[in-house]
UniProtKB/TrEMBL annotation:
<dbReference type="GO" id="GO:0098797">
    <property type="term" value="C:plasma membrane protein complex"/>
</dbReference>
<keyword id="KW-0472">Membrane</keyword>
<dbReference type="Pfam" id="PF03544">
    <property type="entry name" value="TonB_C"/>
</dbReference>
<feature type="signal peptide">
    <location>
        <begin position="1"/>
        <end position="26"/>
    </location>
</feature>
<keyword id="KW-1003">Cell membrane</keyword>
<keyword id="KW-0653">Protein transport</keyword>
<dbReference type="GO" id="GO:0031992">
    <property type="term" value="F:energy transducer activity"/>
</dbReference>
<comment type="similarity">
    <text>Belongs to the TonB family.</text>
</comment>
<dbReference type="InterPro" id="IPR051045">
    <property type="entry name" value="TonB-dependent_transducer"/>
</dbReference>
<keyword id="KW-0812">Transmembrane</keyword>
<keyword id="KW-0732">Signal</keyword>
<feature type="domain" description="TonB C-terminal">
    <location>
        <begin position="30"/>
        <end position="118"/>
    </location>
</feature>
<dbReference type="GO" id="GO:0015031">
    <property type="term" value="P:protein transport"/>
</dbReference>
<dbReference type="InterPro" id="IPR037682">
    <property type="entry name" value="TonB_C"/>
</dbReference>
<keyword id="KW-1133">Transmembrane helix</keyword>
<keyword id="KW-0813">Transport</keyword>
<dbReference type="InterPro" id="IPR006260">
    <property type="entry name" value="TonB/TolA_C"/>
</dbReference>
Length: 118
């Protein structure tokens, strides 16, 4: 009998503490929440990493143009697993086009992605 496994994707822990100081910060927090939600929707655990019981946390920098098109996606913190690192960069590319950033100019966000088998 195979035991149940649960997979987790962690995203931005706190986009803005309890009090947000300005409407600009509120717009940034709302935009970041949308980006995280989109990335989370495309989350996957590579089968080969799962079979090897590989876990880890990656951080991915996504630069989004004013139009919502991703300009660059780059791994800024490795999981220690080549398989999970490749997937960390692949997940944000699956989104395609993001919402336009607040203010209509390029926006950089770093999204943590965690793979954990429990």
């Amino acid at each position: 009998m195979m035991k149940a496994r649960h997979y987790y994707l962690s995203a931005i822990a706190a986009l803005g503490a309890l009090g947000i100081a300005s409407p600009g910060q509120a717009a940034d927090a709302a935009f970041e929440a949308k980006v995280v939600k989109l990335v989370t929707a495309f989350y996957s655990y590579p089968r080969s990493a799962e079979l090897r019981q590989e876990e880890g946390r990656a951080r991915v920098r996504i630069v989004i143009a004013g139009s919502g098109k991703p300009v660059s996606i780059e791994l800024v913190e490795s999981t220690g697993s080549q398989i999970l690192d490749r997937e960390a960069v692949r997940i944000p590319t699956k989104v395609g086009t993001y919402p336009a950033p607040p203010g209509g100019s390029a926006y950089t966000i770093i999204v943590p992605i965690r793979w954990k088998i429990s």
